[in-house]
Amino acid sequence: MKELTCIICPNGCQLTIDNDLNVSGNMCDRGKQFALQEIQNPQRTITTTCKTKFIGYPVVPVKSDGTINKDLIKDVIKEINKITISDKLGIGDIVIENVLNTGVNIVLSSNILKEG
């Protein structure tokens, strides 16, 4: 038996998943879907920073534009750490396309380089 707190909506339901993948404690179907995915194939959105060549802004915020398998997070972070941004990119501009063949891009989440 596993216990989770649902993070999909503000209710924060306390979920219980038994060995047969029966979910209880959810107030909506989204909680059940969250619990099953969390048990079977946990995914996360990545938010971190990426180096730049700009003296005033040595790092800028980046994020994944989709969810990444939880087992790949460390490898994706390693890929991001290999990059140094040298262009004046803005929000949503792709820093790494299709990172580790996941179908997910790493994108800039700030306009600070365009504005600075």
Describe the model.
This protein has helices at residues 29-40, 73-81, 112-115; strands at residues 2-5, 14-17, 23-24, 43-44, 47-52, 59-64, 68-69, 84-85, 94-96, 106-108. It has 116 residues and is an alpha+beta fold. A hairpin with an 8-residue loop joins strand 1 and strand 2. The chain is elongated and about 55 Å long.
- Terminal CA distance: 52 Å
Number of helices: 3
Number of strands: 10
Alpha-beta classification: alpha+beta
Helix content: 10-25%
Average pLDDT rating? 95
What Rg is obtained from the alpha carbons, in whole angstroms? 18 Å
Spatial strand sequence of the major β-sheet: 8-5-6-10-9
* Percent strand: 25-35%
How would the blueprint of this fold be written?
Elements: E1 2-5, E2 14-17, E3 23-24, H1 29-40, E4 43-44, E5 47-52, E6 59-64, E7 68-69, H2 73-81, E8 84-85, E9 94-96, E10 106-108, H3 112-115
Parallel strand pairs: 5-8
Antiparallel strand pairs: 1-2, 2-3, 4-7, 5-6, 6-10, 9-10
Pick out its properties.
alpha+beta; 3-stranded antiparallel sheet; 116 residues; 5-stranded mixed sheet
Question: Nutshell version of this structure?
Answer:
The chain has 116 residues and is α+β, with helices and mostly antiparallel strands. It contains three helices and ten strands, in the order βββαββββαβββα.
